[in-house]
Records
---
Amino acid sequence: MSEPLGVETLREAIALSRTRGAGSAALIGRRIEHHRSIDSTNDRARQLAASGEPEGCVVVADEQTKGRGRSLRHWHSAPDLGLYMTVILRPDAPAERAPIFGLLAAVATASALGRVCRGEVRIKWPNDLVVADDSRGKRKLAGILAEARASDRLRDLVIGIGVNVNHTAADFPEEIAGRATSLRIVRGCPLDRNLVAAEILTALDDWYTLWRRQGERPILDAFRLAGIDLEGRRVRVTGGPEPWEGTTAGLAEDGALRVTPLGGSHPVVVRYGEVLRVEET
Ligand code: BTN
């Protein structure tokens, strides 16, 4: 049994993480809502955002009964093992800039988890976090689901973060067991989820402050450094009417991925769907 999550423990962990880090921001986590069990922290945060909750609120749960991933997938959310949390933001930005905040969350979470697991956490576009797990290659450690409400400008944005924290290999369901890992597996010991959450929330706060001061450039630069397979990688793109194959050709300025179709000469901009690596033989 891992350390229980709790609002006060999490607050203390955030304060500690702030004193150690570079940032002095204190927006994210100014209100924390903790649930023992909930359908989805993203759904709860969306309700709160729609009823006027100020930005910076965090919803965190020990268990989700309907945890959601990207592309309508289920997010395995077993009680007490993982971290399931969602942050409400209200950036002053045009609607079409929404994807940048998913990248911001990926960059912040990758840096936080890298410190926690003392490994190199990389980002698979747009926001899967992967880490080398011994000889088993790169495996998924965390995922991010950013959802926005917008008219011509963003009204609110919820950023859901799911991290595999204290899972052993036997805790993953069969369908993801070959692709998933956890902080515990990488570090070799169980971790306090309050400390992991605090590390991520502080990093998010710092990156969000940086975006307000300097705009998107530092996020795109950091994403290019932490991203994998952004260039020259044969991939299969799914999610549109027909899957197709091509070669990655870098990150566009709005955070989309450029992919040049096989036999084509110009990249196509991919904004949604899945970009799956094709293993060349
Ligand atoms: C993905 O990799 O497909 C994204 C997974 C996002 C999961 C998190 S867990 C907390 C939040 N609540 C949800 O229902 N989903 C996100």
---
Amino acid sequence: MSKIGGPYIGQDRSRSTSGTSLAIDNIGLLVTNHPEDGEGPLGIRRGVALVIEDGFVSAITSAGAAITDTQVDAGGRCVLPGFVDSHSHLVFAGDRAEEFTKRMAGQPYDGGGIRVTTEATRAASDDELRRLTNQRLLEAHQAGTTTIEIKSGYGLSVTDEARILRLAAEVTAETTFLGAHLLPVEFADRADDYVDLVCGEMLEAAAAHSRWIDAFCEVGAFDLDQSRAVLQAGSDAGLGLRLHANQLGFGPGVQLGVEMGCASVDHCTYMSDTDLEALAASETVATFLPATDFSTRQPYPDARRAIDAGVAVAIASNCNPGSSYTTSLSFCIALAVRDMGMTIEEAIQSVTLGGARALQRDDIGRLQPGSKGHATILCSPSYHHLAYRPGVPLVARTIGPLGSKDSTRTSHGPHDISP
Ligand code: NIG
């Protein structure tokens, strides 16, 4: 058995148990996301082997030509860069199935349930939060995700925000301080005091565990000035900027995100022409979260309009217990193609390169020499099946970290490859 362990896809041709080189061989269709090196916008290569050494892609060779310590036979199926999920709230306790059920019966989503999760999360021990987070990470890895961003936002106190971020930092480098998620009950009617706390003591406690800062800029959460103050404080503390904006209606969030140089503005369900123009003229990515619009019965964002206007886009899961309890980016791809006007290729790029761009990373989201060797092996011959067969777990195997420092970490989907 090779060091990556587990059942093999096709034939195991490993030649040792101790090396750090791995070939995914006999790939029918490889998405490199490197158009200079392959066909079309996805840079497709056919009949190849992907060679990964010490966690990085070292070569793409003809099938059968790679000599490595471990080989995985992809059996002629499709291989993609591991998915990059640039928006999640994975560290939480409690469940809001009841809220979802009421919503399906007509009750609108207003974000108020964040306080329910905050209460449950504050009451959970570190070990319980670790256990829950690891379960969700495994689920995401089995579904093809190899990099994930995790936000706080269910602590809403100095101690609990710092605690959530410390736990998140144990499993990802992409951690985001979201103290400005909602006013906690103890600050009802004292929004400015809470914003002062977020920008002061809470940020001080959170910054050591955070790469990014975020705010929920929306009616009922934080207004333009409050969101700007939070982003400015984060920037002064050396954090990168991201923003929740334009989820529940039109508003100033997208333009604030652009003005402040956010890496990404997320949701973008409602966008005016001026919002699109501002985004198109900027480096800020619009990250769509279609599973949220699905689960809150909101309209889907018009991704076609954004792409045609020249906006850089990404798609993320927004895994959280209230508005989007899924880790499946395959589900998001299917929604984006079916309901947001994206081509399948655009949707695939949005969960790989787009997610990487939203995190300002150029080492992930692609498979070319020098990039991280994070790969998703499908049990289908092409990536089209991700939209064509919605709801079917099509990821046979995921190779590369999610919540692990082990560059050979491997998860298996419920199915081995089959026609
Ligand atoms: O991105 N919109 C704000 N935050 C989350 C929802 C969190 C919740 O409802 O618990 C989101 O959708």
---
Amino acid sequence: MNIIRRRGWEIPESEITPEHLVFSRRKLLIGGAGALALAPVLGAGLAQAQRTTDAANLPDPNAGLYPAKHNDKYALDRPITAEKVNANYNNFYEFNSSKDVAEQAQALPVRPWTVKIDGLVEKPIELDADDLIKKIGLEERAYRHRCVEAWGMAIAWTGFPLAKLVSLANPQGSAKYIKMETFLNPKVAPGQRQPWYPWPYVEGLTMAEATNDLAFIATGAYGHPMAKQHGAPLRLAVPWKYGFKSIKSIVRFSFVEERPKGMWEKLQASEYGFWANVNPKVPHPRWSQATEEVIGTGERRPTLLFNGYGEFVADLYKGLDGERLWA
Ligand code: MTE
């Protein structure tokens, strides 16, 4: 990928193995002269695929926790984006680089889902995501969501404050950052077969950011468990930062001393940095951030400093003037 000339988000479809080639290869296998001989092999393959699908679709033992009690501390200045719109306009590069990724993301098996908590902690632990959710409990919050690509939405997430996971982990005093990692499974995620991306997707926050009440681990949206394209079963929501910080489908939380490098920062540090706080006055190197398109209505609104969450988070950045806080 030529990351200098192209936006990180704009990998042309021509660089992805075209779907019709995948399908025509399958047709060849099934319809060719060797079809009979291949039948038992294909049968085994289908059984395997069926098992994977079944595991992915096991009933959610926490389904009864939705809808969770609404926390109205974080009021919105705009209506919630229609679920149909939100669930069909996504960034999930593990599957493909277009916004139309919902169908492909359904291939992700989300149950069982093991979450590792390690690094500078008293005792590293591995937990089943369903057990973690049950243990911590859920609430609902409506957040704005602002992508670095200059569009925005509003979502009713269900989940829990990241601070609760931090206190469960009991990190050592030397931990300065929390590093989060998405699953790595190129078998189900075709985007992860594209070697020019430094998979797995990684993101990080300072401990002060992670323990700010606004930092949220979302497990559901719109009053039900999370749709896969939004990053089931656990995704971050840090609404004062550009959307690429809100890592999806997390499998690992590590407490570390060194500042983690996110996937986009590794690809193009001049455009996607560690802090990535929303600021209308600091343009992206290739476009303005002064306004944003409201997805679903097409309306254009002025971008808000910290995406409108300054009263809750601005203090986190006092004394950090030498840092590139806005991109
Ligand atoms: N997390 C992973 N693992 N993979 C991704 O491609 N895209 C990011 C973020 N988290 C992404 C991710 C970007 S660029 C944005 S804007 C949001 O997810 C999009 O979240 P949404 O699809 O729920 O709107």
---
Amino acid sequence: MTSHTNIADLSLARDDEAVRDLVARLSPETLVRVNEPLAKRTTLRVGGPADIYTEPWSEKDLKTTVEFCARHRMPIFVLGRGSNLLVKDGGFRGLVVCLAHPAFCRVDVAGSEIRCGAGARLKAVAAEAKRRGLAGLEFLDGIPGSIGGGLRMNAGAMGEAIFNRVRSVRLMDFEGRVEERAAAEMKARYRGCGLLKDHLALAAVLDAQPGEPQAIERRMREFNEKRWRSQPAAPSAGCMFKNPPALPAGRLIDELGLKGTRVGGAMISFEHGNFLVNDGTATAGEILKLIDLVKNRAWVERGIDLELEVQVIGES
Ligand code: EPU
């Protein structure tokens, strides 16, 4: 849940005038913080602060915010639930916007269509579908992200990906213009979405189909059991690398004998080779060194160029 923060209560880190100007244009319900730690907002739990962090209360406030960034040429980053994100130790010079306000987290069902706000948790969407006897979205249950992040990454699991189920997406460009696009126009691909590189997702309509409640429940349970068996519980960003065409990255890292390899508090999980876990003491720098080590070994020993799935932002 968000709470309203009065900017006057905060000591502003930089560009005070600009921030005051922004806050003056926003409704009091919109949360704005300066120098906000990001580590706690990511599942990897590393990285430095954002200069400005905001949770808009409405599309209007979001539009005001993106216009502010465009006017001040301030970098903007859209944060989901931080489950596929590595923030560097120096933090992010710019504004981080997160659609976590309840206004962006609605999940509304009409027939077999589910309209979800970008801030809605994938788990909440799967739960609502199950409650309404709608099948096809069970795979979303164990993905620790939001609809917005899920769309941006075309998140997937269990042989499914979210864009297989998307009918349309409501988006905003970085000048504040809003439009609705059919899924086919979104340029979705494996773990990515072309249009969401320069647009923010505001909401999406997902398609499900009527299903037998017990079968839905059973599928969810099977998926979760598979996940618990094969994936670590320690803090991580999920799979670190995209699966290359030749073989799954997790198997490759396993075959290279790298499980358990450490750089400081960062370690390659024993449970799954494509998970880099934080033992609670890792820095972003250590995780980045471990990434380099893996990439280097995969290239030198197997000629495979591993590509990061996790997004990296900020400065060292
Ligand atoms: N494997 C190993 N050793 C390991 C890990 C995996 O030999 O350490 C083998 C497995 O036995 C299996 C194969 O590699 O034969 C693939 O492993 P798994 O079934 O775990 O799937 P994956 O391709 O590694 C993908 C997604 C996951 C998703 C799972 C389950 C990618 C990069 N990863 O993993 O998504 O949860 O399928 O459906 O596409 C994520 O995107 O962050 C993520 C975790």
